Each structure stands twice: as C-alpha cells, then as structure tokens.
Amino acid sequence: MNQDQELRQKAINRVEEYRDIVNLDPYRLHYHIMPPVGLLNDPNGFIQWKGVYHLFYQWMPFKTGHGAKLWGHYSSTDLVNWRHEEIALTPSDWFDKNGCYSGSAIAENDVLHLFYTGNVRDGEGNRETYQCLAVSKDGISFEKQGVVARLPKGYTAHFRDPKVWKKSGSWYMVLGAQTEKLEGRAVLFQSDNLKDWQFLGDITGSNTDQLGEFGYMWECPDMFELDGKDVLIVCPQGLEAEEMLYQNVYQSGYFVGELNEQKPGFTHGDFEELDRGFDFYAPQTTKDESGRRILVAWMGVPDQDEQSQPTIQHQWVHCMTLPRELHLQNDKIVQKPVAELRTLRQNEKRAAISLNQGTEKLDIVQPDKTELFISPQLIEDSFEISFRGAARLIYNKADGIITLERNSYVDERTEARHCRLHELRDLNIFLDASAIEIFVNGGEEVFTARYFPYPGNNDVWISARKEIIVNVTSWTVA
User: Fold this and answer.
1) Which of 2, 197, 383, 460 is within CB 3.0–4.6 Å of 189 for a Cys-Cys bond?
2) Buried b (16+ CB within 10 A) or exposed e, 357-374
3) Over its length of 478 residues, how does the chain's per-residue pLDDT go in tens digits?
4) How far apart are CA 353 and CA 120, in angstroms?
5) Active site residues
C-alpha cells in the first residue's frame, strides 16, 4: 500500500471510528455542509460539471487542528442535497507532501482539472510552494500531473490558492502572494495549454499605485466578470480594525473594476467587505450551467479561537455557508440564497406582530432548523430579535445601524458586529443548530456566524422599544 492509499484508508477509518461521537453532538448541523470528522476549512474547486455541482474542501480528518490537508469532496445535483465522495487529493508526493492547499477547478476537453498549491516544508520548517494540477474523467478519481508553475522571483513562499479561468482563448490564473517586502499582492499567470504557465506580474496589492498599506498577505483570490464588470475577491491578512470595519482576525472582500491581462493590471475601486458577521473566509465562486455566479465560503476565520468551539469535544469543527447567488448593483455585490433552498421549506406560518414597548415569542416549531422572512411595516425607534438566548439582532433606526451580537464561545462575553443601513426593508434569516446567516435588504448586507445555544433553549423573541409592526413568515427547513 502506497502513501496515498494509506492516507485514504486512515481517513476512512477515522470517519468510522468517530461517527457516533460526531453524530451525538447537539450542534451538528442539519442543512449546512460540514466535515464527517475533523476540521474543514476553505472551499476548493467549486464547479458545476455535466450537471453535477462539485465542492471540494480543505480537510484534516485526523484531528480538529490544522496540518497536511487533504481535499475532501461533496457533490450535488441541486445545491441542497450533498453527497460525500471519496477523497480527491492527498499530500503524498514530493511537491505537496505537507498539504494539498487550496485551489480551483475548470473543465476542458471533457476532463475536470483541479489546480492547487502544493505545500512543502523542510526539516527546519522552511516552506516551499508549487502550483499543481490533477485531472479526472469521471469527477471522482483524480490523477496528479505534478507541478505546472513555480515561485517567481521577488516573492516569499506564501504564494498560493490558484483560481483559473478562460478568456479570449487563453487561460489565466490568479494567485494570492506576499512580496519579499511582506506586502500582500494578487498576481497573474497565463497559459495556452493548462500545463505551461507564464508569470505576467502583479495586478494589484498592498503599497501599489491604487492602494496604500493593505495587508502583509493576500489569500484565496477569485477573479470573475459580474454584470459587465470585473470583480476580484481576496482575503487580506494584516488589516487594522477601523470603526465597524475589519473586526475579524482576517478579512474577506472584493474590488470592482477592469482587468487588463496584457500589461497586466487591475484598475479598481475601494475594498468592500463581503460579510459583516463573525465567521466568513476564503469565499470561492463558480459560474454554473444556467449562467449564475454562485458563492460558497468557509464559516470560520483562521487563527480566530477555533479550538474553543464546543464541537471540538465531538471531534469536528467548522462548516460552509449556504450557496449564494451574486449580482452587482451600483458596484456593490448583492448576495441572495440560491433559489433551490426554497425546496426545503415546510410548515409555513405567517404572523403579523404589533408591539409597543413589548416582547413577543415567535411561534417556531424547530428553531434549530428554521428559515424566517421578516418584513417591517413600521419601526418607530428600534427593535431586537433574540435567537435561543445565544445571539441577538438589533436595529436602531435613529442611528441607522444594525448589529449582530452573540455570546462568545470562548468566555461567554457579548461580542458584536455592525454595519450601517439607509433603511431596513427586510430580513431573510437561516437558523441551523449552530449557524446563523442573515440576509439584510435582499442581500445588500449579510451577517454570518456560528453560535452555540444551550441545548433546550429554543425561544426566539422579538421586542421593541417603541411601536413596531412586522410581518413574519417562518418555515421548517426539512
């Protein structure tokens, strides 16, 4: 048995060994993607191919910490029901022996291609990085093709996460990078055959003509066209918090502009955060066969107290966001839950709630798997929704601020994330056993978070400081 086979069998054994412990966790999710065991992080290789959606992910099945990652694999025909497939990639070759790091997928000539970063470390911990390729004719079993691009001069080995696309007959690859001056950058490669890649240079980054100091490393870039403009999603590390902005350890956001592949360069506007919540990182998009641009992200953040999460004792940690359809409105990305999620709706209930300095409990059958749609008709001052005693959504009309609070899973103290609104028109809220996603005003703003209610606390309350009238529709997510 070779190293690849040994790792695969070891992972299978680990899943079987801890299956009962994992499934006994009251925080195990009902309709979000999560690992069978161990740690899940970045979504990888998100693509629809031959009618099937494939979502690969960074997976450490052998512990709930980080290490030499594998590529786990889910597939779905409807973005709702997901099947866990066999492992796609293992760190079993000289060019990826310390981790098959993040990357992307494209289809060409009836073959599925996975591009990923091979991570290598020597005995002293010094890092080497290689951009690698694996291919498959069935979308399940992959054959590694080895290294296709190496580290250019002027950059550290923090050089990773290839996202590949085709334009005007050429293939392009954007990567996250760090210069030798410790500046975060997005860089571009080009290829005619997917195997021989030419380095073109930076397209934007920290301490460039368009940006001042803006992070020491940029991870997980994604470049695509959306509603007639080019969008670069990226995860800068090293941003300092500014009032309501950049409150997490690392950030995820985007620039809107125009990419010039020939020079190369990316002319763009300001950086905008994609999500206002506590747990959102490494988003990746794909354009599906119907032409939609769909995003999935890791519901977590690196180095952000992940080992304090209560699921650790049940031998698993982290999950993915729900798939979101993207559009561009006035150079701002709007995110909406994909329409397929509506097929999960059962037991619809409607209520018109009128309060004046009061509190009312919402009639929800199973708040650990519920979707809510709330449409305010009148808000005189402010109101609050309390979710199972573990999170609160607060809207203050006078200040134009909406706030998500939660009880910290580290020390139970209240922590908060905020953003400004011109008005509050509607809320679409997805509650899972230990996850909450809140889409504000049709997805103009989104708050994503893990939260951990005490088992048995199933109450969802709405309260008002003065008069409010709201319409509430709820569904059980089956």
Assistant:
1) 197
2) eeeeebebebbbbbbbeb
3) 799 999 999 999 999 999 999 999 999 999 999 999 999 999 999 999 999 999 999 999 999 999 999 999 999 999 999 999 999 999 999 999 999 999 999 999 999 999 999 999 988 889 999 999 999 999 999 999 999 999 999 999 999 999 999 999 999 999 999 999 999 999 999 999 999 999 999 999 999 989 999 999 999 999 999 999 999 999 999 999 999 999 999 999 999 999 999 889 999 999 999 999 999 999 999 999 999 999 999 999 999 999 999 999 999 999 999 999 999 999 999 999 999 999 999 999 999 999 999 999 999 989 999 999 999 999 999 999 999 999 999 999 999 999 999 999 999 899 999 999 999 999 999 999 999 999 999 999 999 999 999 988 999 999 999 999 999 999 999 8
4) 58
5) 42
State both tokens at 193.
């055959």
